[in-house]
Every structure is written in C-alpha cells, then in structure tokens.
C-alpha cells in the first residue's frame, strides 16, 4: 500500500516540475523578447548619438579650418602692410577743401604721416597739424617749409606769425583787465557741424515760462520763428537757422533782413557789402528806417569763415566798393575808412547795435540766444512797414525830419531831445527862448549854453578864414576846402 501510494506522489511532483519548466520557458521567452526590443531601442539611440558626435566633430574641424584661414589672411595683410609702408609713400594733398572744413583733420588721422612738406606756407594748416600731433599722433611728425629766403613769401609767413602773437598778447592783456569769472572762457560743447538737436527750439525755451504762478497753464508754447527776407536765401544763414530748430517765414520785407522779435530788426552785411553801403550812403538810410520802426535795431557784420576775423587792409582793398575809395588828398583825413564811418554811424544812431560774427554758424547761434525769452514776430506787421514810412508812434508824436534836425543841434542828446520836442511848438519859438528857459527845459546849463550859442551866434567871414587857416595847418579839410571841425 505504501509503494502504491508513492507512485502517484511521484507523478504529481513530475507534473509540478513540468509546469514550473513551462513557466520558466515562458518567462525566459518574455525576458528575451523584452531584452531584444530593449536592445533594438538602445541601438537606435546610440546611433543617433554617434551621428551627433560626428556632426560636432565636423563643425569643430570647419571652425579650425576657418580660424587657420583667418590667421593666414591676417599674416598676409601684415606682410603687405610691412612691404607697403617700408618704402616711402608720397601723397600730394591740397591744404583747403572749402566744401568740407573737416577734410584736413580727417586726412591726417587716416594717413598718419611722418613727414610733411609744405609748398605754400599756411599757418592755419600748421596749427591743425599741431593739434593732431597733440591729440592722437602715434609718432612725431616733422614739417618742412619750402621758402625762398628774403622773398615776399617769407615775409608774408613771418607777418602772419607776428600777427598771431600780437593777437594772443592782446587777448591776454584784455582778459586780465576784464571783470568776469576765470572759468568763463566762452567755450561750449555745441558745434553745428557735429550735432543737431532734434528738439524744436520752442521746447528748449520752455524754461522761460513763469513757474511762480499757480494753477493750470492753458497757454500753448509758440513755435520759435524768424522772419527772413527772400533775398537772404542766397546765403547759407537761413538754412543754419532752420537747422537749429527755428522756423523760417520767407517773405519780402523792405526794412531789415531778419526780424527776430517785434522789437528786434537785423540788417546783415558782409564785408564787401559793408564797404559799398558805407560809400553809397545806403546804410545810413537803412539805419534811419530801422531806428524809426524798431526799438532795437541791429547791424550784423558777417565775416567769411575762410578769411581772417578782423578788418584788414588787404581784405578791404579786395572788397566790392573799395575801388570807390580813390586817392585821398594829402590834407584830407581818411574819412573814408570803414572804422571811422562806423563810428559816425553809431554816433548818429545811438540805439543801433553792432554784431561782429566770424561765420554764419556763429550768427545762427547768436540769433538763437537773442530770441530767448522774446515774443515772436508777426509777418503781416513786418510786411506792412515800408522804408519811406514812419512808425505809428512817431506819426502820432513828431515829424521824423524835424526829429533828425533837432538831434543834430549842439547840446542836444538822446536824453533831452524829447524835452525840446514836447515843450517847443516850432523853431521860431525855440529861437525866442532865453538861455535860462532852455536850461530849465534841458536841465543842464552846459548843454543849454551850447544850444543857445548855436542858435544866436553870428558867423563872420573872419571866423571862417581863421578856421580854414587852422584846418590847413592841422590838415583837417574836406574835399570842398572847408574846415572839417570848426571851433565856433
């Protein structure tokens, strides 16, 4: 019974072992399949990584090749430069380029010369070379001048150097006597050729508004504008004014060339126009018209930026109208001199102001400063003013012809002329006044005595002959033979 019982037991164990083997086979097969598929996936990932590594390697190789090519090119360029500049390179360059004032400094910075030979000695060019040498020159530059000794060319160069030294000495002495802070040297960072302010000039003048008043500001800021005569557009000044953000109103006006404000009128004269206008007397009539209609008449004398900024005899002789000077008599003073005529003009018109500008750029900057805080001009009012008409105030008050006549009398000044015009009805009434009455009107006994003597003194022939003889001795005669300055 025991043996028979053991057989089925062994059979059941065999069945269990078979089932376990089948399970193992199944598990092995699944793991193998899983490993197989996982191996396939892993092999694809490794292949993509290998491709990426190869691409990186190729890029690195290309970068190395490019670096080598760049280094070769740089070495070749260095060799070319060494071979090029090892031999002397001669360039012929003009000194002045009127279209571009910065051409010469730019050429010096680009070429960086070691030696400069000047065929025509120009002091301005030498000073520009000195500035370039002090600023950014990598080496010392030698300048040679080609001159014939003892000639007018040498003397001209020496006179330019002497004039420059005298100008600096004069500037030093004048600056020592002026009363202003030492740091105020007149230098500014604004240069019209280098930068342009994109803002409008009216925006820059917003600081002139009164900030002490409270409440909202309803007034809109007016655009800064200048009235310009149509004939002035032949010059470059209107364009420079517009470049600074100021609006231009081109109209035809008879009095003045530029109207900056309702009170300010400017008559522009170049050096040649100034000489011609002084000789023909046209400037006198223009000054009369400006002083009648504007409280602040201005005479602008504008120089050429390529010429010296001073009244020089050579410049005046080449100016238009200088041929009208003629030859002066030995006994006649040089009353045709420009400086003397300008002095007489300022004596006749005390309210006339003179502006001396070295170039149109300086003129545009001065105009901008003069307009600061001023009212804007009216086009219709400027066009309505005629050269042969009088201002509204003068039409209501005095006749301009009588005003000019009274202003020329001895003892009459700009301060006391209105006292005579207000209190004296006409010239016969003035002649009947006593010296004490005139003193009461003028408020000055010396000026009253001069006016009374001029109105009541008798001129005798003996006095005229004495004045003529004295003038002959001193050489003060006019072209008609009359004494220029009479003592009586």
Automatic annotation (TrEMBL):
InterPro entries: ERCC4_domain (IPR006166), Restrct_endonuc-II-like (IPR011335), RuvA_2-like (IPR010994), XPF_nuclease (IPR047520). Keywords: DNA damage, DNA repair, DNA-binding, Endonuclease, Hydrolase, Nuclease, Nucleus. Residues 225-305 form the ERCC4 domain. One of its GO terms (molecular function) is damaged DNA binding. Residues 54-65 have a biased composition (Basic and acidic residues). It is found in: Nucleus. It comes from Hirondellea gigas. This is DNA repair endonuclease XPF. Residues 1-65 are annotated as: Disordered. One of its GO terms (cellular component) is nucleotide-excision repair factor 1 complex. The lineage of its organism: Eukaryota, Metazoa, Ecdysozoa, Arthropoda, Crustacea. GO terms for biological process: double-strand break repair via homologous recombination; nucleotide-excision repair involved in interstrand cross-link repair; resolution of meiotic recombination intermediates.
